[in-house]
Structure formats: C-alpha cells, structure tokens
C-alpha cells in the first residue's frame, strides 16, 4: 500500500481561483513564467495561447473532479462512447463560453496589451477524425455533458490526425497534421493507468482445477495503452465529462537482449513498431480493406477502453454488474471488436461461463450504423484477423456457430439466409463481417436518420431486422447549438436572445418562438444585418489568408463536406458551368449574382474526388479571368475544411447544398448546421434532409430529385446516361465544353476521365438529375430576388431547427437504448442551470 496522507491540510475544493480580470491577469503572467519559463517581451503568441489555456484549464478542474467523484460514488449507469474518431474543434473559445468567463479574460488580455480573439484564432484543432462521424461523436460528448449524463468517450490519440489540405496549382496537396507540435494544453496524462494489449501468437486450451475448460491467449507481442484525458464541459451546468484518448507505447523501452548484443538500432525497433499503432488516423479512402495497422488500432482502442471500464468498476463492485454499470455505444463498426473482446475478458480472464458472458455482452453493447455504402461496410480478411487476433477468431467462430444454429431453428432449410447472415463471408476469400458482429453482439442497432434506418432494415441488415425486429431503432442525428450557433454566430445568438430571452441554447425547441418575428420588418432587417456581417467577416478572412476576394452582396451558395461522388459536388459544378455558358451566350435574365463556396477534403487515394476539386478550381479560375462573367459568378474553393473553418463558413451561408443521390447520405449534419444559421436548403430527399424539410415546411426548402426508391428503381431498370444526353443537348454541350478544355485550355483532356465516367456509367445519377436540379436553382434565384421572402424563409429555417439539437438525439439514446438518467452534480457556489 502506498502511504496516504490523512489530509493534505487543505481541501482542493476550497482553493478558489479568481474569475475576475485581475486574478486572471495575475495567473496568466504566473503561468507564462512558471510553466513556460517565458516573460513578456520574449513570449510568442503560442506562449500566450498556452499560458491562457492553462489558466482556463485550472478553472475547469473543480467541475471535472467534482463530476468524476459524483459519478464514481453513486450507483449510476454511465455511457461509454467508443469511437475511432473525434473532431473536437478548437477548445479555448468553447471552454471560455461554458465557464462564462469570456469577458473577464478578454479584459485581462487587453490590460496586458493582448487580443483574446487572436489567441483564440491561434489555436490548432485536434483533427482526429475524417468528417461527419467524428464530429457527431464530439457533438454527442457536448450534449452528454450538458445534460448531466455520466459519460466517457474513449478514442485514439493519433499523433497525426486528418491531413491539412492545401491547394497548389488547383490540386489538393496533403500536408501532415502536426496538432501536437505547438503543445495541446487541454489534456492531462494519467500516469499510473496503463493496459496491456496483445497481438498475434497462439491460444492454449486446458481444463482448470474445477474441471472447466479454459482458453488462454499467448500473444506474440504486447504494447501498452496509456490514457490522455481532455475535459468536456457542459453548458450552463456544473458538470464536466471527459474524453479519454489512448496512446500506444512500447511495453519495454528497449529490448534488453538485443541491446546487450550490441544491436542498438534493432533494440529500438520494437519500440517504434509499438508506437506506430497510434501514429496516424486513416483517411477514409475508397477502400479501407486489408490494412493491418487499422485493425491493430481498432483492437487497441477496444481493449484499452474495456479493460479500463472493468478496472474502474472492480474498485467498487463485482464483474457481474458490468451491464448495469455501463451502456457502451459503438460508433460504427470500427469498435465492433468490443463484442469479442468483452467475451474474452468475461470468459477467459474473469472465468464467467459462456452463456452468462454472452448475455452480459449483449446487454452492454449497442451499435450505430453510419453508412449503407457497400465499400464502407467493414470486413476483415480472416487470415489477417486470425493472425492478429487468434483468440478472437475462435470467439467469433463460436458466436457464429451458436448464432447460425438459432437461424437454422427459426428458418429451417433456408440455406441462402444462413450464408447471407453468417458473421463470416464465405464467398471468395473468407472475411469477418463487422456489421453482422455488431448487430448480433448487442441489444440495439440504430441508423442516423429516419430514411437511413428504414433502408438499413430493408436492405443491408434486412435478415437481421426480420429476426430481431425489437433491436432496430432510429435516432436521427443532431448537432450542438453551443458550438454551431452560440460560438460560431454570436450576432444571431444575441438577436435571438433579444427577442426570446435566455435558455434556448439548452432547450432548442424554443427557437419556434422567433417564427412570428418573421412578419416583423424591423426584425427581418436586423436578421439580414447579422447575415451580412457574417458574410463580410468571411470575406475579410478569405482575403487575408487566401488572397481571395468575394462580394458579400452576392448570394453565398455553400457546399462544404468531404468530397465524394455520391455527394455530387460535380452536379453543383455542372450547374455553374451551365450558368457560365448562359452568361457567355447573353442569356442573363434570371441569373442572380452568386458566389459558390465549395470546401472539403478528398481522400488521398480517391482520384475522382481529387479531379472534382480540380474542376472546381479550374472553373473558378476561368470565371475569375472573365470580366463579364465575374460580375455574376464566383467559384471559390476554400482550402482545409475543418471544424474551425466550418465555424466561419456556416454563419455566412445563404444557400445550403445537400444534393446527394437519395439513399446514399446516411444523415448529413452539415445540413443541420447550415439551416440553424439561416441558410435555405436546396436538396434531395436523402438522409436527414427529409426531416429537415418536414420541420421547415416545403415552402422554405428547395426540393428536387428522385426519392430513394425511385433511385433504386432507375438503377434496377438499367440506367443509361447516354439516353439522358441524347434528350438534353444543352447538357451534352456543357459536358463537351468540359471535355474539350473550356476550363483547362492548357491541358484540354484534363477532365476527360470525369466526363467519361459520367457518360459511361454515372453511378450516382448526376446527369439524370441535372435538369431538375437546374430548374430548382432557377427557383432559388427568383426567391433570392425577393429579399423579404428570402429572409422570411431564412428565419423560418432557424426557427424550425429545435429537433436537430444533439441534446434531443442524446435524450433519444438515453431513453430508448442506454436507459441512463441525468445525475445532478453538486455545485457549491451554484453554477447550475441558468
Ligand atoms: C457518416 C455519414 C453521414 C452522417 C455521419 C454521422 C460515415 C461512415 N458516415 O451521412 O456519411 O451524417 O456519418 O452519422 O462516416
């Protein structure tokens, strides 16, 4: 036993840190000196940022520790969110807002001759995710904390997150993300916690002294997982949860034998190999299969998180209570190994019999599916899986054997169904189907929007939905209004508060109360002023950082999201090319001045996506050179779309492009963020667009395109894009212009592969929907010309976004899936709900 002092002579809770500007100023100078060994005069902006971050971090520790204590001491069920990705966004501004100390901090900085906005601006975000899925995890962490629900998010502390995107000669260039280089002051490393992670090797089977068969896994190599915690403050509550990110370290710093044999470099090899596991985030390339390191990452995350859960609970109770202590949510199939790992821990390590362990596993786990795209549904080749995880292979096969027995009993003689449902795909090279594993191993499966959940039940997991209908449910995604309204759009926030008072940021349905003000001309005017100011702010930033000039009086038409053929950025670009052509031909009657803002990263190996970016920049350059066209049109590709840049773009958008082929976008969340900031949507009936349109009303949503069922039917009948071109000579001419170098005169055949793909297969029905899209865009233009009508629609959009708060989504999960409740955290001095 380590010696514990009975008391330290003081209670940390009694150490009050001043929240006034004088105390903050004092502590800032102190941090600068004692933490960073810097003093005014030599300190850089990064030093100032770090010093301030430490000052702020000190001030959130009470909340964090008090919450942890409340949850630990009580009998509560906690949510464990397992996600391979988190896109947390910049922390400083957010934490200042949640602590409610922005003003004194601003004053303190000003008294020191510093500008708080510059320091906020300076922060680099941890880009530990690819896109919507990672940002959803971050929004959920925000809502869990705000709703006072005990939760820990477990993830991977990638040393290099998603690449930074630069545009050079019009092409995407990937730069290594260095988020840790300036220092990440928010995290705290928990020394003393570490978990051993095995890989490879073999298993042994024996009978123990009680006559029970026991399996033992003897891994070939082991690494250590060590945790780094980042606090997640709730808004308008004293509660704080945290994100626990795991880093891989070598189990022994040096392999001593090799070292003594004089092989110094060889000795360090093992260390390097271990640490590689958490080196880098995988970009979601077209085809993620076959990447051993990725499977290592997934297992590493899962075992660290689950061992940690068990470690904690065993301090108070026994292993059989695991399902009562934890509701574990699998964010997609990346952590689906939790099924086999829980079984291994229960059966092999804790000696629980298989049936009990299986019941405990199923009661603990639930799974969210985030895509129906076949290439994104994870499978792992069995040879790779079994060489890396021999014991888990035995467990999967045993789960599968028992599961298929059940299927056989339910559907005797239905061999087709057996092979469709098996956890192992036996067609060609055998592989493990992770979505099946996650579905069988948990008690709930959900899609992320009503349409997506229906399609999930009817297509990808149809047999499972038939067999276990009670397991399937929908939880439509949501986004946090704290970051995406309050922090991103302070102008709109204070306008809303002005008319409906405080409290709506934690009760977003109250936004309905602004709807009547759409009829109030002076409110409309103020609302427009806010939008204009946001557009001006974006314009200043574009000019200052990218040398791009835009005119805020134009309609800002925005599409920002990962670049993917199913999201159809090229449909957007065909519309631009069509407008350009009409301007050249002198047909300008219903063309309104527009700036198209396109942003998003393409996976480095996804060639077509990169070519789409090149087409955007090429069209942009061509138009910018044309003195006539540039009066009406601008195309700007905004580099490096990430959370920080998103926060600048959303508030400035007039029109939100949500134009994926129906049935392909599981939900979308940018659609919600843009509408919350007053953009009107032009979109298909896909993902959450369907529900957004229901909420907003058909008048204030520009709908076009086929339904998901019509898309399926069109493809089934044998869709021929050439037929479309034969019927639409105008579209054929535009494709011809692109093919023959109108936008790439130096290299006329640059876009030939893109045009060819559209003409020959067009898997996402771009050409099929071009005409209806363009017609819909004409309606957009007409509406834009009626400023008052546009503003009414814009207000109506904001007013209708209550449902799309991630608070609502988290309440749905808590009630339907997790069965967890709010736990009030005691906050002496009261920083409770306002
Ligand atoms: C993405 C979907 C989006 C959805 C987010 C969050 C993956 C695998 N899926 O439509 O494409 O909004 O998940 O649910 O990244």
* Rg from alpha-carbon coordinates: 28 Å
Straight-line N-to-C gap: 45 Å
Q: Count all strands and give the number.
A: 25
Decide which structural class fits the backbone. alpha/beta
The proportion of residues forming helix, as a percent range, comes to 40-55%
Q: Which ions and ligands are bound to the chains?
A: N-acetyl-beta-D-glucopyranosylamine
Beta-strand portion reads 5-15%
Shape: globular
Largest sheet: 10 strands, mixed
Short description:
By secondary structure, this protein is α/β, with parallel strands linked by helices. The strands form six sheets. Strands 1, 4, 7, 8, 11, 12, 13, 14, 18 and 19 form a ten-stranded mixed β-sheet that branches. It has a six-stranded parallel β-sheet with strand order 22-21-20-23-24-25, sandwiched between helices. It starts with 20 loop residues before the first helix and ends in a 16-residue tail after the last helix.
Protein architecture, described:
With 834 residues, this protein is α/β, with parallel strands linked by helices. The protein is built from 33 helices and 25 strands. Helix 2 packs across helix 3 and helix 11 crosses helix 14. The two termini are 45 Å apart. The structure holds N-acetyl-beta-D-glucopyranosylamine. N-acetyl-beta-D-glucopyranosylamine binds next to helix 6.
Could you give the topology of this structure?
Layout: H1 21-34, H2 45-73, E1 78-82, E2 86-87, H3 92-99, H4 102-111, H5 116-122, E3 127-128, H6 132-146, E4 151-156, E5 164-168, E6 171-175, E7 188-189, E8 195-199, E9 202-207, E10 213-218, E11 221-233, E12 240-250, H7 256-260, H8 264-276, H9 292-314, H10 322-325, E13 326-331, H11 338-349, H12 354-364, E14 365-368, E15 379-381, H13 382-388, H14 390-410, H15 415-421, E16 424-425, E17 431-433, H16 434-440, E18 445-447, H17 450-458, H18 462-467, E19 472-474, H19 481-487, H20 490-500, H21 521-546, E20 555-560, H22 569-584, E21 594-599, H23 607-625, E22 633-638, H24 643-649, E23 655-658, H25 670-676, E24 680-683, H26 689-696, E25 701-703, H27 708-716, H28 721-727, H29 729-739, H30 752-760, H31 766-785, H32 787-799, H33 806-818
Parallel strand pairs: 1-4, 1-13, 4-12, 13-14, 14-18, 18-19, 20-21, 20-23, 21-22, 23-24, 24-25
Antiparallel strand pairs: 2-3, 5-6, 7-11, 8-11, 9-10, 11-12, 15-17, 16-17
N-acetyl-beta-D-glucopyranosylamine (NBG) binds at residues 131-133, 136, 332, 370-371, 376, 448, 477, 665-669, 687.
């Amino acid at each position: 036993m380590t010696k514990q002092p009975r008391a330290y002579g003081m209670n940390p809770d009694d150490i009050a840190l001043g929240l006034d500007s004088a105390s903050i100023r004092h502590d800032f100078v102190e941090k600068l000196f004692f933490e960073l060994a810097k003093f005014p005069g030599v300190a850089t902006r990064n030093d100032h940022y770090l010093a301030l971050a430490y000052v702020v971090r000190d001030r959130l520790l009470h909340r964090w520790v008090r919450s942890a204590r409340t949850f630990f001491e009580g009998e509560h069920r906690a949510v464990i969110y397992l996600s391979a990705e988190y896109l947390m966004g910049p922390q400083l501004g957010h934490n200042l807002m949640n602590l409610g100390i922005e003003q004194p901090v601003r004053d303190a900085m000003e008294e020191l001759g510093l500008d708080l906005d510059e320091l906020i601006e300076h922060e680099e975000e941890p880009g530990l995710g690819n896109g919507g899925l990672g940002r959803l995890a971050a929004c959920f962490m925000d809502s869990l904390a705000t709703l006072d629900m005990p939760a820990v998010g477990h993830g991977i502390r990638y040393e290099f997150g998603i690449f930074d995107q630069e545009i050079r000669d019009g092409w995407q260039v990937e730069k290594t993300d260095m988020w840790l280089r300036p220092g990440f002051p928010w995290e705290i490393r928990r020394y003393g916690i570490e978990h051993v992670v095995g890989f490879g090797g073999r298993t042994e089977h024996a009978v123990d002294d009680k006559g029970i068969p026991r399996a033992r896994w003897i891994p070939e190599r082991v690494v250590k997982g060590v945790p780094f915690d980042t606090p997640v403050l709730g808004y308008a509550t004293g509660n704080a949860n945290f994100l626990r990110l795991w880093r891989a370290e070598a189990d022994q710093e040096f392999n001593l034998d090799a070292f003594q044999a004089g092989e110094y470099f060889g000795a360090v090899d093992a260390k390097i190999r271990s640490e590689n596991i958490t080196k880098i985030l995988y970009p979601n390339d077209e085809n993620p299969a076959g990447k051993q390191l990725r499977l290592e990452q997934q297992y590493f995350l899962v075992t660290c998180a689950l061992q940690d859960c068990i470690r904690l609970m065993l301090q108070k109770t026994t292993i059989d209570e695991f399902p009562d202590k934890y509701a574990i949510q699998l964010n997609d199939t990346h952590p689906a190994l939790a099924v086999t790992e829980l079984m291994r821990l229960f059966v092999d390590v804790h000696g629980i019999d298989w049936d009990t362990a299986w019941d405990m596993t199923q009661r603990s786990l639930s799974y969210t599916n985030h895509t129906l795209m076949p290439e994104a549904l994870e499978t792992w080749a069995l040879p790779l899986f079994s060489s890396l995880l021999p014991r888990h292979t035995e467990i999967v096969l045993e789960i599968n054997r028992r599961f298929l027995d059940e299927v056989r009993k339910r559907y005797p003689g239905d061999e087709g169904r057996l092979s469709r449902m098996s956890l192992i795909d036996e067609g060609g090279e055998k592989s493990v189907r992770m979505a099946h594993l996650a579905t069988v191993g948990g008690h709930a499966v959900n899609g992320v929007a009503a349409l997506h959940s229906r399609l999930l039940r009817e297509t990808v997991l149809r047999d499972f939905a038939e067999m276990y209908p009670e397991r399937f449910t929908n939880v439509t995604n949501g986004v946090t209004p704290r970051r995406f309204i309050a922090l991103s759009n302070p102008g709109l926030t204070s306008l809303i508060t002005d008319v409906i008072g405080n409290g709506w940021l934690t009760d977003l349905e109250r936004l309905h109360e602004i709807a009547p003000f759409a009829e109030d001309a002076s409110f409309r005017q103020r609302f427009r002023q806010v939008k204009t100011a946001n557009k001006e702010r974006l314009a200043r930033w574009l000019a200052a950082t990218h040398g791009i000039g835009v005119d805020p009086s134009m309609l800002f038409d925005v599409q920002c999201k990962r670049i993917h053929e199913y999201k159809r950025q090229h449909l957007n670009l065909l519309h631009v090319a069509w407008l350009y052509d009409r301007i050249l031909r002198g047909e300008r009657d219903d063309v309104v001045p527009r700036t198209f803002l396109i942003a998003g990263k393409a996976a480095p190996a996804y060639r077509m996506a990169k070519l789409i970016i090149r087409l955007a920049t090429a069209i942009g350059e061509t138009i910018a050179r044309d003195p006539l066209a540039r009066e009406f049109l601008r195309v700007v590709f905004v580099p490096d779309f990430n959370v920080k840049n998103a926060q600048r773009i959303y508030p400035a958008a007039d029109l939100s492009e949500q134009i994926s082929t129906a049935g392909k976008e599981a939900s979308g969340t940018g659609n919600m963020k843009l509408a919350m900031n007053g953009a009107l949507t032009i979109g298909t009936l896909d993902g959450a667009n369907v529900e957004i349109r229901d909420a907003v009303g058909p008048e204030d949503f520009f709908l076009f395109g086929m339904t998901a069922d019509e898309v399926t039917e069109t493809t089934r009948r044998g869709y021929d894009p050439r037929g479309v071109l034969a019927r639409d000579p105008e579209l054929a001419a535009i494709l011809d212009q692109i093919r023959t170098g109108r936008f790439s005169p130096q290299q006329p055949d640059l876009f030939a592969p893109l045009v060819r793909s559209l003409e020959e297969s067009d898997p996402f029905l771009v050409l099929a929907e071009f005409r209806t899209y363009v017609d819909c865009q004409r309606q957009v233009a007409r509406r834009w010309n009626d400023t008052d009508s546009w503003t009414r629609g814009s207000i109506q959009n904001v007013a209708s976004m209550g449902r799309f708060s991630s608070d609502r989504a988290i309440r749905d999960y808590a009630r339907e899936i997790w069965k967890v409740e709010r736990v009030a955290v005691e906050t002496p001095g009261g920083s409770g709900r306002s």
